[in-house]
Design goal:
Number of domains: 1
CATH topology: Rossmann fold
Oligomer: single chain
Strand order of the largest sheet: 3-2-1-4-5-7-6
CATH superfamily: Vaccinia Virus protein VP39
CATH class: Alpha Beta
CATH architecture: 3-Layer(aba) Sandwich
Shape: globular
Strand content: 15-25%
Length: 229
């Protein structure tokens, strides 16, 4: 197992990441994978019968610069019912600048965040757990998130399932691990997202190749999960 995890170690790993243009929404592989995830999440709300999201409470762990919270606003969540938790000060500052003041933001370790137990309809994480290299820290964060979920709500999960041999700062989180992290949850999972290295190469040839290759389930590397309490 890799180095023991804490908030400082996690922040250092994020800081080592380079090539920010690789994740720019102007890149065709990025906007296509983003839109695919959005569609999966919005279909989930409809399947749950949550056609009016304005009264639902939503907390995101690792909200970054606020992108997914902006998506939640567009989907119909009310700003006063949104909470974002972010570890890195520069990302927190960006989120505070772009999000409405009514959105609650907290800077620091998510396991210490002042979110009341049983208060949230949705507790979301987008590619956070793949950056946690210590099993015990993963479990502690998962337990904290689960404690915030009210009965009938759930954890919204988006993360990749396979290791990246070129990046020792991340590791895949397969479905069996998701189930182990939330042993009392009812897990619904959908495989999405064309493998990013393949997607980048394909989109250099033509963006339409993303859709064509993504028809092959084995080439998808991420899971969207709804883990219901």
């Amino acid at each position: 197992m890799a180095e023991p995890d804490d908030a400082g170690a996690m922040g250092a790993r994020y800081a080592r990441r380079g090539a920010p243009d690789r994740y720019s929404l102007l890149q065709p592989d990025v906007w296509q994978s983003l839109q695919e995830r959005q569609r999966a999440e919005w279909r989930l709300w409809a399947r749950l019968g949550w056609h009016d999201l304005s009264a639902r409470r939503y907390t995101e762990v690792g909200c970054g610069a606020g992108g997914a919270l902006l998506e939640a606003l567009r989907a119909g969540f009310a700003p006063e019912h949104l909470t974002g938790l972010e570890l890195l000060p520069e990302r927190f500052a960006t989120a505070r600048r772009v999000l409405p003041e009514a959105v609650t933001l907290h800077l620091g370790d998510a396991t210490q965040a002042p979110v009341p137990p049983g208060s949230q309809d949705v507790v979301a994480q987008h590619t956070v757990f793949s950056s946690l290299l210590d099993d015990a820290f993963q479990q502690r964060l998962a337990a904290t998130m689960w404690s915030w979920v009210k009965p009938g709500g759930g954890v919204l999960w988006y993360d990749f399932t396979v290791d990246n041999p070129r990046n020792p700062d991340v590791r895949g989180v397969p479905l069996r691990r998701v189930r182990a992290l939330f042993p009392t949850g009812r897990v619904q999972a959908r495989r999405v997202t064309l493998a990013p290295p393949l997607a980048r190469r394909a989109c250099r040839v033509h963006p339409a190749l993303y859709t064509a290759l993504n028809l092959v389930p084995l080439l998808r590397t991420h899971l969207v999960c709804w883990i219901q309490k």
